[in-house]
Structure formats: structure tokens, C-alpha cells
Amino acid sequence: MIPKIPLAEWIEWLVNWLQDHFDPLFQLIKNMIEPTVSFFTRILSVLPPLATIGILIFFILWITRIWTAVLSLAGLLLIWNLGYWDESIQTLSLVLTSTLIAIIIGIPLGLWSGRNDRVQAFLKPVLDFMQTMPAFVYLIPAVFFFSLGTVPGVIASVVFSMPPTIRFASLGLRQVSVDLKEAAEAFGATSWQKLIKVEIPLAQQTILAGVNQTIMLSLSMVVTASMIGAEGLGAVVLESITRLKVGIGFESGLAIVIIAIILDRLTQNLVQNREDVRSRQNQIPFLAKTRKWVAPVAILMIFALTIASFAQSGVKRNEIKLIYVNWVSEEASTYTLKNILEKEGFQVKLIRVEPGPMYDAIATGNADAMVAAWLPTTGAQYYDRYKKDLVNLGVNLEKTRIGLVVPKYVNINSIEELASQKEQFDQKIIGIDPGSGTMLLAKETIKQYNLGMKLVEGSDAAMVAELDRAYKKKEPIVITGWTPHWMFLKYDLKYLDDPKKTFGEPENIYTIVRKGLKEDQPEAFKMIDQFFWTARDMEEVMLDVANGMTPDQAAKKWIEKHPKQVAEITSGVQK
């Protein structure tokens, strides 16, 4: 038997080696990208939304047709009305940053490839690899090198979206007529003059077509990058998927479509012949009169918005970043702590990620705290890896439990009985997020008990949806469950006995913070340290969310209903 090539181990070694030896370079890149994203966000959000929309529509009207401007106005007003303006600004800032970097790197490489056959031969398989590799794979090294947030999202987007810019720039240069090149040489043009004055102008439309494709790919990748903490509409889409909120998913998806169409039409019109654009503008007297001064006004306006945005912004001395895994239980606790901190004057930013990146963010200082560490079993694989860089403040909720759960009308009481009864469950166990500790323990349980059943991956919401469907029809179903969870208040459920203890003993939920938080934010640290509640408290908030409240509304309701517990959490804090 041919031994398996240890490719995964080689990649792990390479990533670790790059982290150890090139960390200053990664920090430099991070320090360049973050201000760029911040710059675009500032100038797009310094004015009220309607004023910003008005400015954008004027420039859209200048570049495109009047009907494109009218439809863009309707689309932007719809985004504002639906309440996704801030998220749209964040998404647009990420797209603009990713596209800018892709253009700066991609066009020179494309021009080089267009003039050199060896460079083209080398780049072609590299670009094929970049375009065919699944987009999710780029998120993994991006997180390792740049942790969580906008920077890894931008980096992953650049890698995924840059190939069209390179390919089209190379193609455009190679399509320039040989006769024209020879004519330029005959008139004594140098290689550089020929490139700047002949080849690039003639290849301009093809190059801009590549930029158009890069923008579209960047937008799609920015949405995917929400899984590693990138903000914007992608985060809303991710929440709607994991929570099965069809309406919110449609609204946020529609906002993305509107942004994509606007960007596509703008870049398509840049590709068109400028004489055609001018002839259309001449049909509108107002636009014809503004041609001479629109460019200077645009430059002055961007300059003024930049100054105004930086003048308004200041250092957020009281900002606290709370991070949580996208489970309904941790959403409840995190939003409750958020609202308690905000009542005491702190500005709280929430970051929603997968389990692994959550621990990494605290360890690297990219987030301040979490109240979502299920220990000693569920989160063991992550806690053991990062614990030397974490500060464990102890338990915030006692005696949780995880295991396999069935409705009480199902007549089995032990996991051991599943093996002989698996046919009635369609040989499936309905699970949650593939990276969670619960799923890893469920896989081990299937192996230890020799169940011969398939563990179906999904999300917390998808699992509950399957439970609800089966429960209404009184059909047998087995799921991965944990306490506290609101489903135990809504449905009559029971845990299956676990004689082999593959799911471990009852756990606690711990509060974890970054090193240095106590010194940087002593008052916030004290409240986070004193945060404690019961499983019943958490289930109250979760049930309200399940019944239609937003997490913010449910958390505020709990805070108003339990003033004594809130007073204990905030006791000793100087206001």
C-alpha cells in the first residue's frame, strides 16, 4: 500500500514557519489595510445617509445613463429604509479596499505577462489555482496570519478576486496590433513610451473589463469573509443562514444585489467609449454645463469629507469588543452583557465567529472578552491550544450538559439502544456547526457505541427546525442537544443515558478575557468578571428571541426584569 503523502502536515508546518519568521511583515500589511478600510468607511459615513446618497447619485448620473441613476437612487433609498445602510457602507469599504489592492498588484503583473511569454507561462497555472480553489479555503491562512476582522477578509478577497485583472491586462496588451507597435518603434518610441502611449491606451477597455470582474468577485468574497469576523452585509447573511431567518436573509441579500448592480453598471460605463458617454450627457443641459468643473469639485469634496471624518472621529477609550460563537445560548449571554456594559457608558462592539477563531481572537488581543467558553470538554481543543495567552475569570453559568436528545414520546432511553433502533431515525443524528466541540464528541460517541449512524452537520437553527418538523408529526428524531437551551422549555425532550460518558460530565460556561484588559479597562473588567447568571435566566432570553424578539430586545427585557442581579454585576463600578 502506498503511504499517504503528508501534505496537510507540510502545509501546517509552512504556515507555522511563516508565522514565526514573517510576523513583522504581516503586521505591516495589517497596519496598511486597516487605515484604508477605515478611510473609505469614514468618508462614506461622515454625512447623514440621505446626503451621502445624493452625492453618490450625482456622480452615478455623471458616469452612467439617467435611468441607471434613477434606479440606483431607488436601490440606495431601499437599503436605507430597510436599515442596512451602515452594513452596506462597511461592505462597500471592504470591496473598495480589496479592489484597490488587486488593481495595484494585478495590473503591473498583467502588463508584465502581456509583454513576456515566460512570465505568462509561469502565472497561468498560478492564476488557475487561485480561481479554482474553493473560496472558504482562503479564510484559513488569512486568519492564521492576520487573526480576525476586516484585514483577513480583505486579504482573502484580494487573492480570490485578483486573477481577472491580471488575465485581462495581459490579454489587452497582446491584442494590440503588431503593426501599431512597429509603427511606434519606427518613430523612435522607447519600450516604456510604447507601453504608456500606445499599448495601455489601446488595451484600456479590456483592462477595465478585468477590473469589473475583480469588483464582482471581491463583493462575493467579502460576504464569505464574514465567517472570520469581517463586518457588513455578509455578517447579516451569515446570521440569517444559521438562524434560518428567511426574511432577513432576503433583505440583506437584496442589499448586496443592489450594490453589485450599481458597481457593475459604473465600471461597465467606464469601459465604454467616452465620446458615447459625452454625447448622452450633452442631451442633459445640466450635465453639459458641469463637465468642466465636476472633476475639481469631486476632488475637493473627497478632501473635505476626509477632513470632516477625521475631525469627528476620536479614540474610543471605552470601547469593549465582545466575541461569541453563533449559538443561540451564547448570543443570549453576550447581548445581555453588552447591554449591561452600555448602561454603564461603555461602547460595545460584537463580533460573531466560529468556535476556533473565537479563542484565537482573545489570545491575539483582537477581541476583549467572551462569556462562551464551555469547559472542560466542549471547548477543550481550543482552550488547550490558546490557554497560555488567555485569562480565565471563572464560571458565569454552572452545570451545563451536552448529549444526544430525543422527544419523550420516543421509547428509547439510552444511547446503547440507538444501534438496534437506528432505522426508525433514518440512521441520522441531526447536529450543529461542524467545528464545534459538541459535534466532535458526537462523532466519538457514534464510534464508541458502534451506532452506524450519519451525523448531519448544519447549525443550531437548522437542528431546531428539524426537531420542530418531526415533533409536530410525532416522528422519531435524535439531535445533539445541550442545556441551557430554549427548546427544553418549548418541547418535551429527554437526554439519552450515556453509560460510557463519551459526552463527559456536566460542564460550566466560563468567562475568558485577553491579557491586559484589567489594566486597560478596569471598570469593564470588573463587570465582566462579576457577570453570572443561571440556566433559567439564559433560557428566558433565548425563548424571547425564539418567539420573535431581537437579541437586543430580549436582553433589555431580562435586565429590566432582574434589577437585583444586574446590580450585583455592576456593584463596585465607578460611574
Description of the molecule:
The protein is α/β, with parallel strands linked by helices and 575 residues long. The protein contains 27 helices and nine strands. The strands form three sheets. Strands 3, 4, 7, 8 and 9 form a five-stranded antiparallel β-sheet that branches. A two-stranded parallel ribbon has the order 1-2. Helix 20 links the parallel strand 5 (428-430) and strand 6. Helix 12 (233-243) packs antiparallel against helix 13 and helix 16 packs across helix 26. The longest helix is centred in the middle third of the chain and has 34 residues, at 191-224. The protein is globular. The mean pLDDT is 85.
Summary of the model, kept short:
It contains 27 helices and 9 strands. The protein is of the alpha/beta class and 575 residues long. Strands 3, 4, 7, 8 and 9 form a 5-stranded antiparallel β-sheet that branches.
Name a few traits of the molecule.
five-stranded antiparallel beta sheet, 11% strand, single chain, alpha/beta, two-stranded parallel ribbon, 27 helices, 575 residues, 65% helix
